[in-house]
Amino acid sequence: MSDRPRPFDGIDDLLERLNRQIETAARSWETQVDNRSQLDLSMGGSETSLDLADEEDEFVVTVDVPGYESDDLELRLTGDTLAISGEREHRQENGDENYIRRERKTQSFSRQLRLPAPIDVDGVMASVNNGILTIHLPKREASEEARSIDIE
């Protein structure tokens, strides 16, 4: 009876190897998330892609927003955080019964981006052209004035 192979003999080794692989993958994933989260504060996944470029005197944020009009988009700058959101609604028309397939529907997105330097809020400009939102964020000059600080 001892000559029969036991089907669960190798399961401990298999589970140990699987555990090591999962731990390695988790460490790798955490490192990638930590590096990305320094700038991107968005919650959850987003299908809207963006680029942040540093062009010496300004930051330029470029966001893919195909199908969105400027009225569908909202930009908000709070401190060093730029929030970009958009929502477009599916319009109900009288000829809806003519559709064979209808996949376009209400869509929305929301992205938050931490900016690496202070921004001159008065000089911010944004435009939408051919489904691309471009935001120019001029950097604010660092104040080099020395100030005396009273000690109480």
From TrEMBL:
SUPFAM superfamilies assigned to the protein according to its UniProt record, in alphabetical order: HSP20-like chaperones
Region described as Disordered: spans on this chain: 87-107
InterPro entries for the chain: A-crystallin/Hsp20_dom (IPR002068), CS_dom (IPR007052), HSP20-like_chaperone (IPR008978), Small_HSP (IPR031107)
Pfam family for this entry, one: HSP20
Comp. bias (Basic and acidic residues): 87-101
Domain called CS: residue spans: 45-152
Domain SHSP positions: 41-152
Protein family (similarity comment): Belongs to the small heat shock protein (HSP20) family.
Name the UniProt record assigns to this protein: Hsp20/alpha crystallin family protein
Organism: Natrinema longum
High-level lineage: Archaea, Methanobacteriati, Methanobacteriota, Stenosarchaea group, Halobacteria
